[in-house]
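Quick check before the chapter quiz. The format below is the same one you will see on the exam, so make sure you can read both the input and the output lines.
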Amino acid sequence: MNDIPTTLTRLGDSELTVANEAEDVRGRKVIDKHGDETGSVDALLIDEPERKVRFLEVGSGGFLGIGKKQVLVPVDAVTRIDDDHVYIDRGREEVAAGPVYDPELTPEPDRPYYEGVYVHYGYLPYWGAGYRYPGYPHF
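Here is the expected output.
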């Protein structure tokens, strides 16, 4: 049983679209707090009932796709967005050390998994008391 308040879905697997095409960050490079490239945004995990992006699915590491792993980065880490990049307030090493996300093996991660992601980055889970959805950037 999934004990997370809502099931998160990859945007591409839903009927939803991004209202403004320019705000679709999939495919953009992720830049860490030091200005280093961390990976790229492969997907957006959304909370369909709330119509909010909760996580960026980031492909990190590897060479020519070999050894690349997927990690989730809470949208809370995003500091700004431009036409080609998503900037986050964490370092490349912290992202690379995040809990591995494999949508093929864990299509519906449970609350402990998501909680572990939030703990790793030091953010309050979106279902926690007092959580406020980031005001910027707008997804």
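If your answer matched, good. The two ends are 29 Å apart (CA to CA).
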